[in-house]
Structure formats: C-alpha cells, structure tokens
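Request: Give me one sample?
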Amino acid sequence: MTTHASTPDERLLASWDANASAWTAAVREHRIPSRRAGTDAAILNACTRLASLSVLDVGCGEGWLARALADSGRRVVGIDASAELIAQARAHDVSEGRARYETVSYEQLIADATSAAGPFELIVCNFALLGDPLVPLLSALASRLAPAGQLLIQTVHPVMAVGEGAYVNGWREETFQGFGVSFPAAMPWYFRTLGSWVTELDGAGLRITALGEPMHPDSARPLSLLLHCAADVGQSIVRRE
C-alpha cells in the first residue's frame, strides 16, 4: 500500500495531541527555561496593561494564560486545535464561568465566522502562530476584533531562533530538548524573519503599533518578540517598548 507523507501543518497539529500530557507537565511544573526567565510574565503583563474585558486566547494549550486572565476578572475564550489540550484546560479550570475552552482549528476560524465569533477587545496568540501561511488566519482574527481591539502576538525572536541556520523563512523542527520531560513527537514549526512578520500582518490588514523584545535578566539577550497589532489605518510602527 502506498502512503503519502503528511504536510508540515498536519504533523504540527498531530504533534500537539501526541505531546499534550508532556506539554502540560512542562508548563505546570515550570520546566521551560525561557518561560521562567520572562516570556510568561511578558505576555501576561502586556495583556493586563490593556483594559480589555473580552479576550480570545488563540492556541491556548493547557490554559495557563486564559486562567490567569480570567482570575483578573476578564471573560476569556480559550481555543486550541488539540482536543487533548482543551481537555487538560477544562480539567484545571476554576474560573467559575469567566473562562471557557473550545476545540477549534485554525481552518475552522478561517472558514466559519461563527466559530469563536466575538467580537473580542483583545486577541492573544502566545507562541501559537507556528504554521504557514499566516495571512488567512490573521485576517480571520482581525475580523473578530472589536472596534479599537488589539491583537497581541508573542513569538520566538528571529535573531535568537535562527541558530546556526540561514536567516530565511522555512520549516524547522523542535524536539523540546532541555524541558525535563520526554516528548513523544517532534514538532515542525515555521521560522520567519522580522520582515516576513511585517508582510504577513500587512497582508491581513493589520499594523504593528508597538514592538517589544523581552530580555533575559542575565544574558541581556532577547527572549521573544512581542507584537502589538491593530486594524490598519494607514500608519506604520509608532512606538517600541
């Protein structure tokens, strides 16, 4: 029987179901060095500085950020394509109705305007935009923003994530080394340059209003790239955090 290799996006989704238990343990046991060093605090602080009461947490995983935002009084919808991770999020939720979790794929967001319909004052993607292309998904998210709503994206910093490879867009692979937990499956992910991020956002009708680079407290090297985005009104980047 002839078998066909799955696409990187299909393998990406399958890896999250396979790794759900390991990922949940790594997050809840604080095993991921970059998160301890500042990326968790960076996205949480960026969200809580905004006066947004309705939040869509895209790629919410086991739900830590949705729980934290619900604890601060916000109404949060957490979505993830992995049913296994959504089950973990629901099992750990104590928000008394302020947060709810739904299994929604990015393809569903693009194709069905009634999925996680909103509108939301804040949409947050915390290390959740790992595939390619992004314009259809970003356009779908932009359509769910309330007037004056904001999209927050935290992603790997291209300068740090490039490693020994060339600084060009392309698929790479994460094996979760150094997380202190055994992960059953490697995860494909799409590396993109800073210029590519600007192009993808522009293609979705979004503009960058602020750009942050959370720094490692010891090495003073960037831990991540934090993009504040809004509906495009013909302006470019206006400030740097």
